[in-house]
């Protein structure tokens, strides 16, 4: 499912009444103002074999425009957090380009699993209750490993249909008001009503089409979405010594901090109640930028001084804004944001001025993935995924976003990465048996070649010297998962295992200077076991810092 076609919810937001305390045996009162409630609706695309949960008329229009069909109303959530601090769980929509799947959750556990599993925040759809009340219904998530599809429902019929079609229950994502009943002006008037019969026919046809699909070999993906999967690299620059940026959760807040590779000199740079993600340091190491989910309709890109001094700056403030990184000279930043139903690449000067969008806009519903500057700063690499087609087109453009040039059509792929010398591009492409396999091609799109037959879990990236490519694999089709980190030469030779399944690598972050390897380690139950650092060959790994949880880590550029 492709939530990046969606712009943020634009609704009349109203505060509820005075603070009230409830127990689970109480009935939660309906708000007096109808506009305070948002209806959650499920849509299905038979072509893409994907569900999507919508929460506004704008969202509905976007999915209808791209061929999705209405299935049912799932329930209702609040448009804004209530003043009583009871209905406070944000229902967040996440997107994973690797699986071409979205995932809705209003729980901390679900959010952590989504982020660690490579899902990215698209928008906040509304507010659910984290507690059960007599008149609320659970919002349940389901997962189908063969389809690679998440499905969220709050209706008994939705649950029955999901189980019958081979979906597995994941967790309760929060509690919501049930759909409006038959007495509502917005509901069908009778069993014989044409609208109701049409909805039932669509639902029956939907799940019949799922059942009739031929069995597929399950992809090398988690079932359900779980932690892990990222191999990240900050890029090379002429900056000073590298430091590590961490985003974690402390005392109920998201905290961005920095720490030296020896585990010393940790400094908290910023704290937010709302979700923050995607840290990146400027090439000179003086500023740290990050994304901040300020509200349902606005995500900010901010930066702060890397030494912890001074206040922050707002560099961009747009629906769904996601920081992607700095230009090599530090003069510009790249981000993606939602505009006119599409996710586009935006280029902004490093001080937040002179924002512009890359020259040729895609069709409504298409979206850009992971734009990045070439090492010499002259070109931008990005992938464009049409919403009506799961294939991925890889492009380069001039540094100002002009003159986009299509390199190739890669099929379902992701994680395209420049080599450190800018001469090659590595990527993961979904091939036979629905497996993600590692590929390399020349920077002009020629010479595409597969360099490993192992199913890749998550992304890939280059070693600092450009000679090798790092990637993760996963052992086991069900819990407990075990993940290993490997590397292979760019020509496909000299395969090596850096850290085996017994270490259980959640995510790996090679340092830009090639001296260090930073690893998020998981336990057998996919719980966070610690942040470790050691040599690039995986030897002499030691625990870097004791924190309850780390969402993400990243290196600053360095010599």
By DSSP, the count of extended strands is 38
Strand proportion = 35-45%
**Number of alpha- plus pi-helical segments:** 4
Kindly report the spatial arrangement of strands forming the biggest sheet.
10-34-35-36-37
Oligomer: single chain
Mean pLDDT: 76
What is the radius of gyration? 23 Å
Q: Give the terminus-to-terminus CA distance.
A: 40 Å
Sum up the overall morphology in one term: globular
Helix content: under 10%
Largest sheet: 5 strands, mixed
Q: Would you identify the regions where 5 or more consecutive residues have pLDDT less than 50?
A: 1-23, 182-193, 202-230, 232-240
Structural class: mainly beta
Could you explain how this protein is built, in words?
- With 559 residues, this protein is mainly beta.
- It is built from four helices and 38 strands.
- The strands form ten sheets. The protein has a five-stranded mixed β-sheet with strand order 10-34-35-36-37, with no helix packed on it.
- It is globular.
